[in-house]
Amino acid sequence: MKPVPGHDALLDPLLRAAGHDDRRFCIERLLVEEAAPVIAQILERYGRRWSMDASEFDEVTAIVNLRLLQKLNKLIPHDEKPIRQFEGYVAILAENAFFDVLRRRYPARMRLKNRLRYIITHDPRFALWTDTSATLCGLADWRGDPDGSEEFPITPGNATPAMLDQSDPARAVYEVFRLSREPMRLERLVQLLVELWNWSEAPEEPSLTTVTNDCKSPLADYESRELLLALWKEVEMLRPMQRRALLLNLRDHDGRDALRLLVLMRLVTIDQIALVLEMAPRELAALWSELPLDDNRIANTLGISRQQVINLRKSARERLNRRLKCPTKGLFA
Q1: 320 and 260 within one domain
Q2: pLDDT tens, residue by residue, 32-80
Q3: Boundary-marking domain end, from 55, 74, 104
Q4: How many Cβ atoms from other residues are within 10 Å of residue 218's Cβ?
Q5: Which residues are registered as beta bridge partners of 126?
Q6: I need a labelling partner for 124 at 20 to 30 A (CA). Which of 84, 111, 292, 331 fits?
């Protein structure tokens, strides 16, 4: 069978899938078997330079999985924007998500990086180029040369006065290059100047208030891991019947199973969901492929009327809205 034109051959099973269940299976396989190793590789590459912790890695992974899930759910054979190279597409998503997190948590450092990039690309003495693994910078005559030594000789103790002068960053950059005598990664230059200029910026942790005040679109706010974790904690405090009426019918904005999304984002495990539903994991596993359940099915499962199910879910949503000050309709349909 010929590959689907325009798309990476890895996507053929998804693009030829006959039904919703087949597409879901193919998407999960792509996320776990193909995307996850690429995301891990990107995090390993950049994480060493930025000393990011496990929670930040998890946040980046969740953002990438969400964006990829949205793209794959809508992908069709004759897509206007096909995925021609799947691994490259995932790598770009991972890099973008990584720096999205950095921009939010280290805004001053990212502003410095952008300022240095502007100086280097607009001053004819300097050059910026890319090799196979990183963005490099140096004097114009060095353009295209490989990365220099990781053991960089410049420290606050041997830096020249020009390097320590924050008021003239172009001169400081020139002095760094002059003394180094070799190209360096742009990230290394940023780190060096942070050390020379004695910057100390604590990560900016987004508060729940900030996150909830920005709840405007149905899916964009999924990127806020903090909000979803807060939502889950509030769900755990609902009355048992409210939790069941809400979670067994939980859908994303496109009507798909939202519990599966939470698992894919590694926010909760299936065992945790079973515990909140007061069900044995085996019992939940038997229902998993059928989620979300309609109200009649939930009513039969709980031994109550359909209207009672609706009322329980309504009261659950009202409590969550009050507690989080952000309409849950903006998170789940």
Answers
A1: yes
A2: 899 999 999 888 877 766 667 777 787 788 888 888 888 888 888 887 7
A3: 104
A4: 15
A5: 139
A6: 111
